[in-house]
Specification:
197 residues; alpha/beta; 29% helix; 18% strand; globular
Length: 197
């Protein structure tokens, strides 16, 4: 019923356009530990994550990006995205990932482009990047077209699952059908996700 993307963000002071999926994997496994190794300044990378037990987004990252392998010993755990965003704003070398609607519109961080190769980096936001000085009056918006087309490399479809032959089946089906209507897709977009229709 909707499309979500995994977005990565850094401190606004860190001037780096983006990372490849291989670089992200190496950072979160602990084999790349300095921004200089990926075209940035000579600054330690402080990768942040919420605990794996926090749910679907972290599990998806571990499965899709780390290929089921554990985080490296250099990865620091934060309890919430709010805590991570504060750390990003105050830690020049920090890197964090979360669901794109939680990252892209934030004022105190900079979302970065990702790609399979250095020449295919795609930002999770509509370019040009809105400068922090213009926020919150203007905020970065999701790059919906790149999510819908699959050009952005880390997207997933969100579904409504309805249990068959249960008392809640009619309500679940009605909810799923509502989300696929124009009104439902408008609400999905308003909630920050990308519509499928």
């Amino acid at each position: 019923t909707a499309i979500d993307g995994l977005a990565f963000a850094v401190s606004p002071d860190l001037k780096i356009r983006g990372l490849t999926l291989a670089q992200i994997t190496a950072i979160y496994r602990g084999t790349i530990r300095n921004w200089q190794a990926v075209g940035g300044p000579n600054l330690p990378i402080v990768p942040l994550t919420r605990p794996v037990a926090a749910g679907g987004t972290i599990e998806w990252f571990v499965e899709s990006v780390l290929e089921g392998k554990p985080f490296g010993p250099n990865v620091e755990t934060v309890n919430t995205t709010t805590e991570a965003l504060r750390r990003l704003g105050n830690t020049p070398g920090a890197l964090y990932f979360a669901s794109a609607p939680e990252v892209v519109p934030q004022c105190t961080i900079t979302p970065i482009a990702i790609g399979k190769t250095p020449d295919t980096l795609v930002p999770p936001f509509q370019e040009p990047l809105v400068p922090a000085s213009d926020c919150p009056a203007r905020r970065n918006q999701l790059h919906a077209a790149a999510f819908q087309s699959g050009q952005y490399p880390l997207t997933r479809n969100l579904f409504v699952v309805v249990k068959q032959n249960s008392p809640s089946q009619p309500a679940g089906e009605a909810y799923a059908n509502l989300l696929l209507t124009q009104e439902g897709q408008d609400l999905i977009a308003k909630a920050g996700f990308v519509r499928v229709r």
